[in-house]
């Protein structure tokens, strides 16, 4: 047997243990074709898996050769066949490119619309329907809220899967993620495997890309939750209206049974608009006292360690006291959303009583769960924090929380990513200048763009703000990021707070197609230790 590449091995780990062969004629029927549309050579062909990327094709797979923004998947047909693909599904343009290949080729218009249905057919498992699936969407807070839900489900003793930006986890098996929401092919495989291994629940982040690219096609959520909507991903969506409409698709009754919407921000906020767009059963949650129609509200917020204790109050009078150990007021919202999402699911079929759930929420401290790279405290004196904030709203919330908590200066290292929403760069520069005392503009995943040009746009935003407000700030531009972090550590005294924003848990940066290893958490730890050693030596 040929050895699998690491990408193939990762794919194999999250496929059902016992694949069931599916006749190609059944696949043809699922995409609206007749048996006569299948070439005679394919009449006896069977497939046991499906992939839409040649790098993750496994032997006997169906390869979905989709037209893309950059290229046509059919151009990679020979790689798919070399990896063992038994058949290919594509569109007419792809079929032209694949003329003469040695495996049967099916052709339909717009094949992406069938990805979910085909994956569901190939990985079919009756018990998948019994899995309670939770989906979280919103600009910020998806990962944190998902980890919080996972912590509650795990404390309830459920076997659960977690899918998101950081990792895909199924029981003891974990692989790092390359996407926030994987492809529909991978999701259907994962949940079939979960069902086969006795899993009862799953929680996943649902990005707006995933909704646009139909990665959640064929999935149905018991409960879907909305955190917030602020500027991001305008490169994909073009406008906030399109971004909003895309997210709203998750809350239709076809997609979920219950939608829990965080309605913070008042009547003009996106939470209220989202609540109005819901066609599933609606549960409104408000943490800032601005929604008189809220089903659940957050009250009695008090500081508790680095985080907060608070009460969840239902309009029927039910009160549940809980807390989160993670800093930042936004983590109250994340914890409250996680709690209300689980409270809104009917877990009785899984043998879980309401009483057991309330006990976990009020006594189990599930929201103390550390989330990698989210307000992660790396050093003390100076306080060193790594946070994933990489858009304007997240930066405001993170920096304001840390400014309030810092006994000294707030020293920030950050950059903006290349080939993504360029309009947020100057805005992020201005926010940095507003909240931090020392602003070090550096690099963050430039991808194919010239890093100096990206930094210049961020610097311009920061300079404008400082000039307009005649503010006393130290503004520096330092690249590479490692040097910026070292300099931040050298500038800090023990009362100061250093925050590295934007990269969170990530361990490598894409610089013009080259993967450059860098982990902010390691860099900060070493930089602070080195600066302390140098200070002692002086
Ligand atoms: C912008 C975007 O989301 N693009 C997605 C889209 O790409 P595309 O249509 O442009 O595809 P393409 O690159 O032209 O390639 C065409 C086809 O050839 C296939 N191919 C290509 C090369 C190869 O060697 N083998 C191969 O099979 C590709 O899998 C694809 O099906 O469809 C591809 C699969 O069909 C996705 O892999 C790809 O995601 C790329 C990798 C990506 O980086 N997406 C990011 C932006 C994303 O989805 N991010 C969100 C989170 C965002 C956030 O909240 O921060 C996420 O959920 O991760
Ligand atoms: N509820 C929230 N509101 C605003 N900002 C938040 C919220 N929760 C977290 N943040 C900020 O956003 C950053 C990313 O948080 P998290 O990873 O939980 O969100 P996400 O939606 O998964 O982000 P992404 O889609 O970019 O991975 C955090 O590091 C923090 O700075």
TrEMBL record:
<dbReference type="GO" id="GO:0008765">
    <property type="term" value="F:UDP-N-acetylmuramoylalanyl-D-glutamate-2,6-diaminopimelate ligase activity"/>
</dbReference>
<dbReference type="InterPro" id="IPR036615">
    <property type="entry name" value="Mur_ligase_C_dom_sf"/>
</dbReference>
<dbReference type="Pfam" id="PF01225">
    <property type="entry name" value="Mur_ligase"/>
</dbReference>
<feature type="binding site">
    <location>
        <begin position="138"/>
        <end position="144"/>
    </location>
    <ligand>
        <name>ATP</name>
    </ligand>
</feature>
<feature type="binding site">
    <location>
        <begin position="180"/>
        <end position="181"/>
    </location>
    <ligand>
        <name>UDP-N-acetyl-alpha-D-muramoyl-L-alanyl-D-glutamate</name>
    </ligand>
</feature>
<dbReference type="InterPro" id="IPR035911">
    <property type="entry name" value="MurE/MurF_N"/>
</dbReference>
<dbReference type="InterPro" id="IPR004101">
    <property type="entry name" value="Mur_ligase_C"/>
</dbReference>
<feature type="domain" description="Mur ligase C-terminal">
    <location>
        <begin position="373"/>
        <end position="504"/>
    </location>
</feature>
<comment type="pathway">
    <text>Cell wall biogenesis; peptidoglycan biosynthesis.</text>
</comment>
<feature type="domain" description="Mur ligase central">
    <location>
        <begin position="136"/>
        <end position="341"/>
    </location>
</feature>
<feature type="binding site">
    <location>
        <position position="54"/>
    </location>
    <ligand>
        <name>UDP-N-acetyl-alpha-D-muramoyl-L-alanyl-D-glutamate</name>
    </ligand>
</feature>
<feature type="binding site">
    <location>
        <position position="207"/>
    </location>
    <ligand>
        <name>UDP-N-acetyl-alpha-D-muramoyl-L-alanyl-D-glutamate</name>
    </ligand>
</feature>
<dbReference type="InterPro" id="IPR013221">
    <property type="entry name" value="Mur_ligase_cen"/>
</dbReference>
<keyword id="KW-0132">Cell division</keyword>
<protein>
    <recommendedName>
        <fullName>UDP-N-acetylmuramyl-tripeptide synthetase</fullName>
        <ecNumber>6.3.2.-</ecNumber>
    </recommendedName>
</protein>
<dbReference type="InterPro" id="IPR000713">
    <property type="entry name" value="Mur_ligase_N"/>
</dbReference>
<dbReference type="InterPro" id="IPR005761">
    <property type="entry name" value="UDP-N-AcMur-Glu-dNH2Pim_ligase"/>
</dbReference>
<comment type="function">
    <text>Catalyzes the addition of an amino acid to the nucleotide precursor UDP-N-acetylmuramoyl-L-alanyl-D-glutamate (UMAG) in the biosynthesis of bacterial cell-wall peptidoglycan.</text>
</comment>
<comment type="similarity">
    <text>Belongs to the MurCDEF family. MurE subfamily.</text>
</comment>
<dbReference type="Pfam" id="PF02875">
    <property type="entry name" value="Mur_ligase_C"/>
</dbReference>
<keyword id="KW-0460">Magnesium</keyword>
<dbReference type="InterPro" id="IPR036565">
    <property type="entry name" value="Mur-like_cat_sf"/>
</dbReference>
<keyword id="KW-0573">Peptidoglycan synthesis</keyword>
<keyword id="KW-0067">ATP-binding</keyword>
<feature type="modified residue" description="N6-carboxylysine">
    <location>
        <position position="247"/>
    </location>
</feature>
<feature type="binding site">
    <location>
        <position position="52"/>
    </location>
    <ligand>
        <name>UDP-N-acetyl-alpha-D-muramoyl-L-alanyl-D-glutamate</name>
    </ligand>
</feature>
<feature type="domain" description="Mur ligase N-terminal catalytic">
    <location>
        <begin position="47"/>
        <end position="120"/>
    </location>
</feature>
<keyword id="KW-0547">Nucleotide-binding</keyword>
<keyword id="KW-0963">Cytoplasm</keyword>
<keyword id="KW-0131">Cell cycle</keyword>
<keyword id="KW-0436">Ligase</keyword>
<dbReference type="Pfam" id="PF08245">
    <property type="entry name" value="Mur_ligase_M"/>
</dbReference>
<keyword id="KW-0961">Cell wall biogenesis/degradation</keyword>
<feature type="binding site">
    <location>
        <position position="215"/>
    </location>
    <ligand>
        <name>UDP-N-acetyl-alpha-D-muramoyl-L-alanyl-D-glutamate</name>
    </ligand>
</feature>
<keyword id="KW-0133">Cell shape</keyword>
């Amino acid at each position: 047997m040929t050895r699998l590449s690491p990408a193939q091995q990762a794919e194999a780990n999250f496929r059902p243990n016992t694949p069931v062969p599916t006749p190609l004629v059944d696949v043809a029927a699922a995409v609206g074709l007749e048996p006569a549309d299948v070439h005679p050579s394919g009449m006896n062909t069977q497939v046991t898996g499906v992939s839409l990327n040649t790098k993750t094709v496994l032997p006997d797979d169906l390869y979905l050769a989709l037209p893309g923004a950059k290229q046509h998947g059919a151009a990679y047909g020979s790689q798919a066949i070399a990896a063992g693909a038994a058949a290919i599904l594509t569109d007419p343009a792809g079929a032209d490119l694949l003329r003469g290949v040695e495996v049967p080729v099916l052709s339909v218009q717009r094949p992406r619309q069938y990805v979910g249905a085909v994956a569901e057919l190939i990985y079919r498992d009756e018990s998948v329907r019994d899995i309670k699936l939770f989906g979280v969407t919103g600009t910020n807070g998806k990962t944190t809220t998902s980890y919080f839900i996972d912590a509650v489900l795990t404390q309830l003793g459920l076997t659960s899967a977690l899918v998101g930006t950081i990792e895909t986890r199924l029981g003891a098996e974990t692989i790092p993620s390359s996407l926030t929401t994987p492809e529909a092919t991978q999701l259907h495989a994962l949940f079939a495997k979960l069902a086969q291994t006795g899993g009862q629940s799953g929680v996943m982040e649902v990005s707006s890309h995933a909704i646009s690219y139909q990665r959640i096609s064929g999935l149905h959520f018991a409960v879907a939750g909305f955190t917030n909507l602020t500027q991001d991903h305008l490169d994909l969506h073009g406008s906030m209206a399109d971004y909003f409409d895309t997210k709203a698709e998750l809350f239709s009754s076809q997609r979920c049974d219950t939608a829990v919407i965080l309605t913070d921000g008042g009547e003009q906020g996106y939470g209220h608009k989202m609540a109005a767009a819901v066609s599933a059963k609606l549960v409104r949650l408000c943490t800032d006292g601005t929604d008189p129609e809220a089903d659940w509200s957050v009250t009695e917020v008090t500081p508790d360690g680095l985080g907060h204790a608070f009460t969840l109050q239902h309009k029927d009078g039910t009160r549940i006291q809980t807390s989160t150990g993670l800093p930042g007021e936004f983590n109250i919202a994340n914890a409250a959303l996680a709690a209300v999402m689980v409270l809104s699911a009917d877990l009785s079929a899984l043998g879980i009583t309401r009483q057991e759930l309330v006990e976990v929420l009020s006594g189990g401290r599930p929201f103390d769960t550390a989330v990698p790279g989210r307000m992660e405290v790396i050093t003390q004196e100076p306080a060193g924090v790594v946070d994933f904030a990489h858009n304007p709203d997240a930066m405001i919330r993170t920096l304001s929380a840390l400014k309030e908590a810092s006994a000294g200066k707030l020293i920030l290292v950050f950059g903006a990513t290349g080939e993504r929403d360029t309009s947020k760069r100057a805005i992020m520069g201005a926010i940095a200048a507003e909240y931090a005392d020392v602003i070090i503009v550096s690099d963050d995943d430039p991808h194919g763009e010239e890093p100096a040009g990206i930094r210049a746009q961020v610097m311009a935003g920061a300079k404008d703000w400082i000039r307009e407000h005649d503010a006393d700030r130290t503004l520096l531009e330092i690249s590479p990021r490692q040097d910026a972090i070292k300099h931040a550590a050298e500038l800090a005294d023990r009362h100061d707070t250093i925050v590295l924003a934007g990269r969170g848990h990530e361990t490598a940066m894409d610089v013009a197609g080259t993967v450059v290893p860098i982990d902010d958490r390691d860099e900060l730890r070493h930089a602070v230790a080195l600066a302390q050693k140098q200070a002692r030596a002086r």
